[in-house]
UniProtKB/TrEMBL annotation:
Domain PurM-like N-terminal, first and last residues per copy: 117-225
Reaction catalyzed: 2-formamido-N(1)-(5-O-phospho-beta-D-ribosyl)acetamidine + ATP = 5-amino-1-(5-phospho-beta-D-ribosyl)imidazole + ADP + phosphate + H(+)
Region entry Disordered, spans: 44-73
Keyword field contains ATP-binding: yes
Limits of the PurM-like C-terminal domain: 237-397
Organism whose genome encodes this protein: Riccia sorocarpa
Keywords attached to this entry: ATP-binding, Ligase, Nucleotide-binding
Basic and acidic residues: compositionally biased ranges: 53-63
Name of this protein: phosphoribosylformylglycinamidine cyclo-ligase
Length: 401
């Protein structure tokens, strides 16, 4: 298959079955190593890059020590719906990551690094999971492309990389040109928001493979960062501040659990969302925020040591991925606005708070670990930023009020 030939005339040769990633539905906390490509650093990398990659693997793929201390009365109860009940096993995904890492050392970041002169090319790939099911149900297709771009470019910007170009893959059983046009419209908008070029893509018509009117999407982004500007978390220390950037809602992870909650509750996508002026469907389909411009602007001011994109695995599994061994995060719950959609999911599904924080972004789509001085400046100059907590000795994430 000649990727991109269908729409741009750009021909990228290579075997059609070559794969840089393994797709897991709604993915685990270690999503990057599984879905984000990253097997790009191979024989071409220098021996020093290989050593750096090995250390990165040891740091980022270690199993997270999870601690849930919501209050002095004890931990969370084992009740209510879970992500695993909905068919997504985060621990199984983490185990697959461990096995992949044993075969291809050097993976584990939110994006894959490839040495290129005095820079790294940073690559990522992703989809939008079963959020597509909601787009099908509501017959709204012009924003799902924004989600597709966001999931990849938000990952690669965690390394400090500026996205350069994006490619997409659109597959369906029978091509509906009007529907596909709406999807691509969203992809174009996502590329505009992230200041990157839609370089091309592949449209695959596969009779009998998908249900009538349905399709699947994948996206691929490549960016670049100077080696001396790479954000890798190695300088994080106790006392550094953890700053969160607000999300627009659920973004593009956790929808297997969302759909299970919908089924259990008996609610429909067109029902009004409590404590909001939108429907449940409108809140759930809100496009993923693209943080590229804001993050790059913050980086230009200095003081940023690590960045985590909060996707599948939530706070609990994603924040620790940027820390050196022996350090963890203490998050003060209640210090930021949690959108009404999360409160509805928790109540309607009887989902425990610990499960919410390990599945959803809970209103924070991007986390930056920064110096105390940088934290003050970021919060004072951004209308969507807040201090979530601080870096502590230990591993994993602890929660307090």
């Amino acid at each position: 298959m000649l990727a991109a030939a269908a729409r741009s005339g750009v021909v990228i040769t290579g075997p059609a079955n070559a794969r840089n990633s393994v797709r897991i539905e709604q993915c685990c906390g270690c999503r990057a190593a599984v879905r984000k490509g990253a097997r790009l650093v191979q024989a071409q990398a220098s021996s020093s890059s290989s050593a750096d990659g090995e250390e990165r693997r040891k740091t980022e793929i270690r199993r997270t020590t999870r601690s849930w201390r919501m209050n002095s009365n004890g931990g969370s109860r084992a009740a209510g719906l879970t992500y695993k009940d909905a068919g997504v096993d985060i621990d199984a995904g983490a185990e697959l990551v461990r096995r992949i890492a044993a075969m291809t050392p050097g993976i584990g970041g939110f994006g894959g690094l490839f040495p290129f002169g005095d820079s790294y090319l940073v690559a990522g790939t992703d989809g939008v999971g079963t959020k597509l099911k909601l787009a099908f149900d509501l017959d709204i297709h012009d924003t799902i492309g924004i989600d597709l771009v966001a999931m990849s470019v938000n990952d690669i910007v965690t390394s400090g990389a500026k996205p350069m170009f994006f490619l997409d893959y659109f597959a369906t059983s029978r091509l509906d040109v009007d529907q596909a046009e709406q999807v691509i419209k969203g992809i174009v908008e996502g590329c505009k928001q992230s200041d990157c070029v839609l370089l091309g893509g592949e449209t695959a018509e596969m009779p009998d493979f998908y249900a009538e009117g349905e399709y699947d999407l994948s996206g691929f982004a490549v960016g670049s960062v100077k080696k001396d500007a790479l954000i890798d978390g190695k300088n994080i220390k106790v006392g550094d501040q953890i700053v969160g950037l607000a999300s627009s809602g659920v973004h593009s992870n956790g929808f297997s659990l969302v759909r299970r909650v919908l089924a259990k509750s008996g609610a429909t996508l067109r029902d009004p969302l409590p404590d909001a002026d939108v429907t449940i469907g409108e809140a759930l389909l809100a496009p993923t925020v693209i943080y590229v411009r804001q993050v790059l602007d913050i980086l230009s001011r200095g003081g940023v040591k690590g960045i985590a994109h909060i996707t599948g695995g939530g706070f609990t599994d994603n924040i620790p991925r940027v820390f050196p061994s022996g350090l963890g995060a203490h998050v003060k719950v209640g210090g930021w606005h949690v959108p009404p959609i999360f409160k509805w999911i928790q109540k309607a599904g009887g989902v425990e708070e610990a499960e919410m924080f390990r599945t959803f972004n809970m209103g924070i789509g991007m986390v930056l670990v920064v110096s105390p001085e940088a934290a003050e400046e970021i919060v004072s100059t951004s209308n969507n930023a807040c201090i979530l907590g601080h870096v502590v000795e230990g591993e994993g994430v602890t929660y307090g009020r």
